Amino acid sequence: MSFTFSRERLCKIPGVKPIYPDTTDFYLQMFAVELPPCDAERVRRELCEKHQIEIVTSSWNGRALLKVCIQGYNSREDADRLVAALPGAVKSGLIL
């Protein structure tokens, strides 16, 4: 599975944006994206509890970040599940 493909798809979700240029100089198996303003921990819990997706989120300098690590055992279907689940998880964690 292409890491670039997964990153590109995640960055098409409204409010999700890359935090560095699209080049493999910065990533091979892992990459991070910035989420819209939200409670990063709540997004992580939503993905884990409702979708069985284990992923790292963090808050840094007032920014919510999602760290994606794709390994050899991950499939395109795994990436599809993340892309499908992330908008709802972000919505549940929105800071209004």
Short description:
By secondary structure, the protein is of the alpha+beta class. Helix content is 39%, strand content 21%. Helix 2 (40-51) crosses helix 3 (76-92).
Main sheet strand line-up: 1-2-4-3
The CATH C-level class name: Alpha Beta
Identify low-pLDDT runs.
Answer: none
Distance between the termini: 36 Å
> What radius of gyration results from the CA coordinates?
12 Å
Q: What percentage of amino acids are in beta strands?
A: 15-25%
Helical residue percent band: 25-40%
Give me the CATH fold name.
Answer: Aspartate Aminotransferase, domain 1
CATH architectural arrangement:
Alpha-Beta Complex
Tally of DSSP helical segments: 3
Main sheet?
4 strands, antiparallel
Keywords:
96 residues; alpha+beta; Aspartate Aminotransferase, domain 1; four-stranded antiparallel β-sheet; 3 helices; 21% strand; globular
Structure description:
This protein has 96 residues and is of the alpha+beta class. The chain has a single domain, classed as Aspartate Aminotransferase, domain 1, CATH 3.90.1150.10. It is built from three helices and four strands. Strands 1-2-4-3 form a four-stranded antiparallel beta sheet, with helices on one face. A hairpin with a 2-residue loop joins strand 3 (56-60) and strand 4 (63-69). Helix 2 (40-51) crosses helix 3 (76-92). The N and C termini lie far apart (36 Å). The mean pLDDT is 86.
Element layout with pairings:
Blueprint (H helix, E strand, L loop, with lengths): L2 H8 L6 E2 L11 E6 L4 H12 L4 E5 L2 E7 L6 H17 L4
Antiparallel strand pairs: 1-2, 2-4, 3-4
Helix pairs in contact: 2-3
